[in-house]
């Protein structure tokens, strides 16, 4: 197949994948990627079809043109093909990280965090997911243990977002300001972006798909 | 003129010197009465005392039943977590799948301890308020309850991939919702407010809303023996209101702070009650003068709208909000504002 034909087919497959996700057709989306992976390898399915589809999904999500459910479905589709690649021993190489993610103390709204973990893994990050209700000490201890330079703390509500201030203080008190970057995310930050600075975050993303780009930026800002 | 008369006038569209107003101060009563939250949200006498303190403090035209939706999740078996400064969250959903959900017993509002706390609080408040100030019950919508009992991801997954199972779940939550909401009306609630999540295209596929969730709400709302206020639930709703306006027993809509009343009016016409839209979570931000300016702007925007109730939007006003901020808003509306 000529390069231009191949490129055209990839674009068409990407378009089809986006359409399936936007229509809520998870089984069709999974099948499209699996079929392509069987003929062309999982790396091609993930890097040449899934990733561009996720970029477009991210753009649509950022401009509030798609729903949380569509974002969730995109995450499930990504998770399925990543697991399939791993089972076929075609897992993508981990090229970045590790990073720590978790819901801040008192917060139990895990959906966003789980999606962030999936999209980071899709982009090649090694992700240590600590789960819900993580104290500032637990976050920073884990970052030191795993030699992680980015912590992603999630909070859904205004009240629990306030607990991220304590994580900021923990990072600073241990002399790690600039060496460990703090990403703050969750529904409340989308509604009130100014809250990121208020709680001491170094950055945020408006949706889970955009988090890998945020982490790339934060990684570049690390003080060696 | 009593608070109830003022609210009724707004529902009927009679122009008043000032609009009725309320602020979501369910939680704040604990601060005004120095009551630990664990007691405030378990002892109806303490809760009612807290709301009486709210009434004495700022004389809102609507008083709230306990704003603790997670008690409904607890009635289904979800495990709760108690933060220091806000009502409990769901720590662990009761079940991990819709199939398990369908095997759960439907909670009985007459025997479940969590629901009885809320009902007894409403009864006590109704006795003390004697019909002078309306009480708003806050209830989880039948389309949203599953996310508190099985987790939001499981509920989304069920809606997308197993529609027949999702319909069975909705039948079950509708049965519970009608029993509980009607019990609150019998206890003395004047209306109920439903913070809505799974009817918003920002959260769920429009196709699912149109084909499954709105029909489920239509069926559920028909069973309710009183007026319903449809609350934005954390997402903008103004542009979607025409989808919801025809639902039975819906008396009005509470807008998101980012919504425009003018946009909402183009969707629901001039006769529908609209509430909002000061962000109750941000009363602490900026100066008191800036806060009063925001309030004044909202009042000015609605100065010719008789079907309007000034209200804070969003979740409960945080405990950390200085009382003088709340008082400033109340004073401005009650004493300083003339249409």
Task: Give a quick precis of the structure.
Helix content of chain A is 59%, strand content 10%. Chain A has 224 residues and is of the alpha/beta class.
- Summing up helix and strand content along with how strands pair, one would put the structural category of chain A as alpha/beta
The CATH class of chain B is Alpha Beta
Averaged pLDDT of chain B, please?
95
User: What is the level 1 CATH name of the largest domain in chain A?
Assistant: Alpha Beta
Question: Tell me, what's the shape of chain B?
Answer: globular
CATH superfamily of the largest domain in chain A: Cobalamin-binding domain
- Provide mean pLDDT of chain A, rounded: 92
Count of individual domains of chain B = 1
Strand count, sense and barrel status of the largest sheet of chain A are:
4 strands, parallel
Describe, in plain words, how this protein is organized in 3D:
The complex is a heterodimer of chains A (224) and B (339). Helices cover 59% and strands 10% of the residues of chain A. Chain A has 224 residues and is α/β, with parallel strands linked by helices. Chain A has two domains: 3-87, Methyltransferase, Methionine Synthase (B12-binding Domains), Chain A, domain 1 (Orthogonal Bundle), CATH 1.10.1240.10; 96-220, Cobalamin-binding domain (Rossmann fold, 3-Layer(aba) Sandwich), CATH 3.40.50. Chain A has a four-stranded parallel β-sheet, with helices on both faces. Chain A is globular. Chain B is α/β, with parallel strands linked by helices. Chain B is 47% helix and 12% strand. Chain B has helices spanning 3-12, 28-32, 37-40, 44-58, 70-75, 98-102, 113-129, 145-150, 152-161, 163-187, 206-222, 241-244, 261-268, 288-301, 323-336; strands at residues 21-22, 63-64, 79-81, 89-92, 135-138, 191-195, 228-231, 250-254, 273-279, 308-313. In chain B, the strands form two sheets. An eight-stranded parallel β-sheet of chain B has the order 1-10-9-8-7-6-5-2. A two-stranded antiparallel sheet of chain B has the order 3-4. In chain B, helix 4 (44-58) crosses helix 7, helix 7 (113-129) packs parallel to helix 10 (163-187) and helix 9 crosses helix 10. Classes of the chains: A alpha/beta (224), B alpha/beta (339). Chain A binds chain B through residues 23-24, 26-27, 64, 67-70, 72-73, 76, 106-111, 114, 132-133, 157-160, 187, 191-192, and chain B through 81, 83, 85-86, 89-92, 151-153, 156-157, 159-161, 201-208, 234, 258, 281-282, 315, 318.
């Amino acid at each position: 197949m000529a390069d231009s034909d191949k490129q055209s087919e990839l674009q068409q497959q990407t378009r089809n994948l986006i359409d399936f996700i936007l229509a809520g057709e998870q089984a069709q989306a999974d099948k499209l990627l699996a079929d392509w992976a069987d003929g062309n390898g999982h790396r091609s399915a993930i890097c040449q079809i899934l990733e561009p589809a996720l970029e477009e999904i991210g753009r649509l999500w950022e401009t509030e043109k798609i729903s949380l459910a569509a974002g969730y479905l995109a995450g499930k589709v990504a998770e399925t093909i990543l697991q399939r690649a791993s089972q076929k021993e075609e897992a993508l190489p981990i090229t970045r990280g590790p990073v720590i993610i978790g819901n801040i103390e008192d917060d139990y709204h895990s959906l966003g965090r789980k999606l962030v973990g999936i999209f980071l893994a899709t982009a090649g990050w090694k992700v240590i997911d600590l789960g819900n209700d993580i104290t500032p000490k637990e976050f920073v201890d884990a970052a030191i243990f795993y030699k992680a330079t980015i912590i992603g703390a999630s909070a859904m509500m205004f009240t629990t977002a306030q607990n991220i201030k304590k994580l900021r203080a923990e990072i600073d008190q241990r002399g790690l300001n600039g060496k460990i970057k703090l990403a703050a995310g969750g529904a409340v930050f989308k509604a009130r972006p100014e809250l990121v600075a208020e709680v001491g975050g170094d950055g945020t993303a408006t949706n889970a798909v955009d988090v890998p780009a945020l982490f790339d930026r934060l990684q570049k800002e690390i003080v060696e | 003129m009593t608070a109830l008369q003022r609210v009724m006038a707004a529902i009927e569209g009679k122009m008043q010197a000032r609009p009725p107003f309320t602020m979501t101060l369910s939680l704040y009563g604990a601060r005004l009465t120095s009551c630990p939250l664990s007691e405030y949200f378990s002892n109806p006498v303490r809760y009612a005392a807290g709301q009486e303190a709210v009434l004495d403090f700022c004389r809102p035209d609507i008083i709230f039943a306990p704003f603790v939706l997670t008690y409904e999740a607890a009635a289904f078996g979800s495990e709760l977590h108690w933060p220091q400064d806000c009502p409990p969250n769901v720590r662990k959903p009761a079940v991990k799948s819709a199939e398990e959900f369908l095997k759960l017993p439907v909670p009985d509002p007459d025997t479940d301890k969590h629901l009885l706390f809320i009902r007894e609080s409403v009864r006590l408040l109704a006795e003390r308020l004697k019909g002078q100030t309306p009480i708003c019950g806050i209830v989880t919508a039948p389309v949203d309850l599953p996310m508190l009992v099985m987790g939001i991801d499981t509920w989304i997954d069920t809606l997308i991939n197993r529609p027949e199972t999702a319909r069975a779940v909705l039948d079950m939550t509708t049965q519970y919702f009608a029993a509980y909401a009607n019990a609150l009306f019998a206890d003395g609630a004047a209306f109920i407010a439903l913070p809505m999540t799974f009817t918003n295209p920002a959260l769920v596929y429009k196709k699912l809303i149109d084909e499954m969730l709105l029909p489920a709400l239509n069926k559920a709302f028909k069973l309710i023996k009183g007026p319903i206020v449809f609350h934005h639930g954390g997402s903008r709703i103004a542009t979607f209101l025409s989808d919801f306006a025809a639902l039975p027993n819906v008396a009005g809509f509470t807008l998101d702070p980012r919504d425009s009343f003018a946009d909402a009016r183009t969707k629901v016409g001039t006769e529908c009650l609209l509430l909002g839209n000061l962000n109750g979570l941000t009363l602490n931000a900026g100066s008191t003068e800036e806060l009063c300016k925001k309030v004044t702007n909202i009042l000015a925007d609605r100065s010719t709208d008789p079907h309007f109730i000034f209200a804070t939007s969003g979740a409960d006003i945080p405990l950390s909000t200085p009382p003088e901020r709340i008082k400033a808003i109340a004073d401005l509306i009650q004493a300083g504002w003339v249409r």
